[in-house]
Write a structure and sequence with these properties.
788 residues, alpha/beta, six-stranded mixed β-sheet, 18% strand, globular, binds 1,4-dihydronicotinamide adenine dinucleotide
Length: 788
């Protein structure tokens, strides 16, 4: 007798292919040739390249390679449209974004099919994931536009944004870029990847249908050369890029010193940790999402399996069995799990990497049906690799999972963090204690507990280390497209008195101040000191002339201290900040005298600077335990915690004009949020900083949390910015060092925050506002399963 279950087992799998007719007709209607979308119009198609279906090799359309003049025209159009767009109310922009969200939903199937034709991803994914998430992004940002005027009234848009996106999520990445930029009141010039431009051109039509004013969204097509032109265009205020770390580094270098804002979402090699007490079947299913979603061409793909030794063999067995059930083939077939690789170049890159590295482990590929044409690569597992092997370290960007084992939770964390990237991580354990102990220790911008590849517009997404900087999604993502209101004035050169090489009468003692490293006074490595002149040009003291060795020592001390400082409770850090304020307060007169001797002016001004400094310390003591982050309302059976975590070691060149207030305005937010700092104090007036370390010494600040290296800003800036163990560099210096810092920071893609010669009003909100909190923290988004 045949049972239902026998029937199910014996039933032949039959294809259920989505029709491409509508999408192909859409292409035919447009003559299969596309120009750019500039100022609300499509331009005449010009010389260009072909858009191909990677599953079949068939040509879908011909696209135009943008000439420099076309890029200029797009930037001009965006520039012209910007004042009007930003002049609209937040509500008017919200309505436009809402209209776009609705149009995406109305045309969802057309967009999904076109995306699958152009990119090769399974229709199941473009239909159920890419397009709905893109619509959700526009809805969410309609909301942010609506609330912006009320909730962030003191902010204005950046202007014109150049946005360059990759080929792995063509439509979704477009949404991630355009929605926040528009919500904030910017206009955009977007360049899709040359492999996958069609849905961006369809989107261009939707902007007209939504009634978006001409020039608010401009789309130019072409390759990296067009990208370069956008990046270096003087008419652009911000670059937002998603793509390879290599190109991200080029963009960091190319924009250095330009004053353009920058956010980079780059590569990854995200760990997927499975503990022996995990729900193994769920963890296997999670891996299907982690590494076989979009053929593994996902920047945050869980591409590095780290599995506990005791269950490794059993887990790999289950995984191989699951892999054998994955269906590979025509991406338009609704039953397909694995579609085509985006193009031949990417396919041969994957093949080359696997051929070169797989021999170090054991390779498994299921015996799946491979189509006779098109760019396909089977799901692949390579076990038994050592953590240092190339395939464990390098991003493959294909359906290839590499695996290694661990014994203890500590070892799992160590292996997970043994990477130059820091985009995402998954941790699987049924024991809440294990999962929630390990999750915060992972160096990544996004962490999924018992899950993988979950995204939502409300939750920030973005990386650490060489995975880039900046966040997309949430209020934190919107902030990447805003700046504080007001026109920053250029920093005035300091009016320094003419030098008279005589000691100032008030200070007969020899006071050669030292550096302050690891909680101790340290002589400068150079053995040199430098004279500090006061307001009347007289000598007021000497300071050590720090060099690169001193910076290295200071960074080492900071790194050593940072972990424990970050682990201290926020209450503890707040108390210490209050204590610094108290100790400064008891010596207020002495500090005011010293300031006065150096900077001159009325005595009351110096006294006011000391009072403002105490006030600032109170501000950051107050914020220390009130800025933990937010909980995001994400549409899953869970929640996402947007945690404000420390950046790590911050190097800062302090302002020259208000030597004490400036020093503390930089130091206080950084240490309040759990960072350790290496400070280079005011170049002309460093003695106030060396007096200040006596205050630190009496205020229970652990050694190494604050390090002070006196010396020339111009000499020390590049050393700090190039140091591989520094996580961020800030500069408020009046020396012209912003460009050099940004260029040197490209090495490990550390975050930078530099003044580009602009002044800051240190006495006001400018000197303690939201920007400091943002710069002192990395938003880490932790997704956790949570009730109903
Ligand atoms: P890519 O980084 O070269 O391309 C991304 C975008 O940048 C494209 O629109 C491209 O035209 C543009 N571009 C290229 N050179 C540029 C330049 N100098 N200035 C400005 N824009 C430029 O990525 P590609 O070559 O397509 O893929 C190479 C590897 O990068 C992949 O194998 C993968 O490992 C990684 N990748 C990572 C992505 C991610 O989301 N993290 C996305 C795409 C690729």
């Amino acid at each position: 007798q045949v049972t239902v279950s026998d029937l199910m087992d014996s039933m032949e799998y039959g294809p259920a292919t989505e029709s491409a007719a509508e999408a192909l007709a859409w292409l035919v209607d447009r003559g299969d040739r596309f120009g750019h979308f500039i100022a609300g119009q499509f331009t005449e198609p010009g010389d260009g390249f072909e858009a191909k279906n990677p599953a079949t090799g068939e040509v879908l359309a011909t696209l135009t390679q943008a000439t420099p003049a076309e890029v200029d025209a797009a930037v001009d159009a965006a520039r012209k449209a910007q004042p009007k767009w930003t002049g609209l109310s937040g509500h008017a922009r919200a309505r436009a974004l809402y209209a776009l969200a609705r149009l995406i939903q109305k045309h969802a199937r057309l967009i999904a099919v076109l995306e699958t034709l152009d990119n090769g991803k399974p229709i199941r994914e473009s239909r159920d994931i890419d397009v709905p998430l893109a619509a959700r992004h526009f809805y969410y940002h309609a909301g942010l536009a609506q609330l912006l005027d009320k909730d962030l009234a003191e902010h204005v848009p950046l202007g014109v944004c150049g946005q360059i996106i990759p080929w792995n999520f063509p439509f979704l990445m477009l949404a991630w870029k355009i929605a926040p930029a528009l919500a904030a009141g910017n206009t955009v010039v977007l360049k899709p990847a040359e492999q996958t431009s069609l849905t961006a051109l369809l989107f261009a039509e939707l902007t007209s249908e939504a009634g978006l004013p001409a020039g608010v969204v401009n789309i130019v097509t072409g390759d990296g050369a067009v990208g370069e032109r956008i990046v270096t265009h003087p008419g652009i205020d911000k670059i937002a890029f998603t793509g390879s770390t290599e190109v991200g580094r080029k963009i960091r270098t190319a924009t250095a010193g330009s004053g353009k804002a920058l956010s980079l979402e780059l590569g990854g090699k995200s760990p997927y940790i499975v503990f022996e007490d995990a729900d193994l079947d769920s963890a296997v299913e999670g891996l299907v999402d982690a590494i076989w979603f979009n053929q593994g061409q996902v920047c945050c793909a869980g591409s590095r399996l780290i599995v506990q030794e005791g269950i490794a063999d059993a887990f790999h067995d289950r995984l191989r069995a699951r892999m054998a059930a994955l269906r590979l083939g025509d991406p338009l077939d609704k039953c397909i799990d694995i579609g085509a690789i985006v193009d031949e170049t990417q396919l041969s890159r994957i093949e080359g990497m696997v051929a070169a590295g797989a021999g170090e482990g054991a390779l498994f590929q299921p015996d799946c049906h491979m189509p006779g044409r098109g760019c396909f690569y089977p799901p692949t597992l390579i076990t038994g690799l050592s953590p240092a092997s190339t395939l464990m370290q390098e991003e493959i960007f294909g359906p290839v999972l590499v695996s290694t084992t661990f014994r203890t939770p500590a070892e799992a964390v160590q292996l997970a963090n043994d990477t130059r990237y820091g985009l995402a991580a998954s941790v699987w354990s049924e024991t809440i204690g294990v999962a929630l102990d390990v999750a915060p220790k992972l160096t990544a911008g996004v962490i999924w507990v018992n899950g993988s590849n979950m995204f939502d517009a409300a939750a920030g997404f973005g990386g650490l280390r060489e995975s880039g900087f900046g966040r997309e999604g949430g209020w934190e993502g919107l902030m990447e497209y805003l700046r504080p209101k007001g026109t920053a004035k250029p920093l005035k050169p300091l009016a320094l008195a003419e030098r008279a090489d005589k000691p100032a009468p008030a200070d007969p003692l020899d006071r050669t101040a030292k550096l302050y490293i690891g909680g101790k006074q340290a002589r400068p490595d150079s053995g040199y000191c430098r004279t500090v002149y006061g307001a009347r040009g007289r000598i007021v003291g000497h300071v050590g002339l720090g060099n690169r060795k001193d910076i290295r020592n200071a960074v080492e001390a900071a790194r050593k201290a940072q972990g424990a400082w970050a682990a201290a409770s926020a209450h503890n850090r707040a108390q210490i900040l209050y204590y610094i304020a108290e100790n400064l307060s008891t010596r207020a007169g002495e500090f005011a005298d010293r300031l006065h001797a150096m900077t001159g002016g009325p005595k009351a001004k110096a006294a006011a600077e000391v009072e403002a400094t105490i006030d600032r310390l109170f501000t950051w003591a107050a914020r220390a335990d009130k800025a933990a982050g937010e909980i995001k309302a994400v549409p899953i059976r869970g929640t996402a915690l947007a945690m404000n975590t420390p950046v790590g070691v911050i190097g800062a060149l302090c302002p020259d004009e208000v030597p004490l207030l400036g020093l503390v305005s930089v130091l206080a937010p950084a240490i309040a949020m759990g960072n350790a700092v290496v400070l280079v104090p005011s170049d002309p007036f460093p003695l106030i900083a060396t007096d200040f370390y006596q205050v630190l010494d009496t205020s229970d600040v652990p050694g190494g949390v604050v390090n002070i290296v006196t010396g020339s800003h111009t000499t020390l800036a590049a050393t700090l910015a190039a140091h591989m163990d520094v996580d961020a560099v800030w500069s408020f210096s009046s020396s012209d060092i912003s460009a050099e810092i940004e260029r040197a920071a490209a090495g490990n893609l550390k975050r930078t925050w530099v003044n580009h010669g602009r002044a800051c009003d240190w006495t006001g909100e400018d000197g303690e506002g939201r920007a400091f909190l943002r710069a002192a923290t990395e938003v880490k988004t932790v997704w956790i399963p949570w009730g109903a």
